[in-house]
Specification:
- By secondary structure, the protein is mainly α.
- It contains 10 helices and no strands.
- The protein binds protoporphyrin IX containing FE.
Length: 177
């Protein structure tokens, strides 16, 4: 079974989430998108720092997204707030084993490498964070570093991702239409 099959149910929940639907509708305001970007930036910064400290990004450094997220955030010139889930996730990352850190890379960066490619056309700003050099090659190289033992941790990461959508939707009163 591929890792993708293990996260199928949570992926379907993420795709159906009202905040994600708003993003894909092209109707998200710069203010709400800035919230999303700032929180994603803080989470990715911590994750990518840990991945690098463990030498897990050797040869695949171009997958890193945090600097590009900050650029996209600055471009919006908007206020933003940090949600509790972001502090929780950053604290949680400190406790994750070297092996399981790759499950975090999988959910976050593969999300950008796949679904993100559809997102870049519809979000405010230029979407530098969705541009990858040699995307297919990068996917193949990263996939060779993954295995099914990451399934349980990958589902935990999906739940953190969905929690951020929940927090943003509650704060901005985003509901299913
Ligand atoms: C409406 C929102 C989304 C859409 C339309 C979308 C779409 C897609 C598509 C088309 C694929 C490739 C299909 C496949 O290989 O099975 C994919 C893969 C993936 N998505 Fe999403 N996605 C969305 C949201 C998310 C979110 C929020 C996350 C996680 C935070 C995520 C994580 C992933 C991962 C990890 C993969 C790689 C699966 C694999 O090939 O192993 N996606 N997504």
């Amino acid at each position: 079974m591929a890792l993708r099959d293990h996260i199928k149910d949570n992926h379907a929940t993420a795709e159906k989430h009202p905040f994600v639907k708003l993003l894909f509708s092209g109707g998200v305001s710069p203010r709400i998108y800035a919230d999303y970007l700032l929180n994603q930036y803080l989470m990715y910064l911590k994750l990518e720092t840990l991945l690098e400290q463990h030498g897990l990004l050797q040869g695949v450094e171009s997958v890193k997204r945090s600097k590009l997220m900050l650029e996209d955030f600055h471009e919006l010139r908007s206020n933003a707030r940090i949600y509790d889930v972001t502090y929780e996730y950053v604290r949680y990352l400190e406790t994750v084993s070297k092996e399981n850190l790759m499950a975090h890379m999988y959910v976050r960066h593969f999300g950008d490498l796949f679904g993100g490619q559809l997102m870049k056309k519809v979000v405010p700003g230029s979407g530098a964070m969705y541009e990858f050099e040699n995307r297919s090659q990068l996917i193949a190289e990263l996939r060779s570093r993954l295995d099914d033992n990451l399934a349980e941790e990958a589902n935990k990461v999906m739940l953190f991702a969905i929690q951020l959508f929940e927090d943003i939707a509650n704060e901005h009163d985003i509901r299913d239409t």
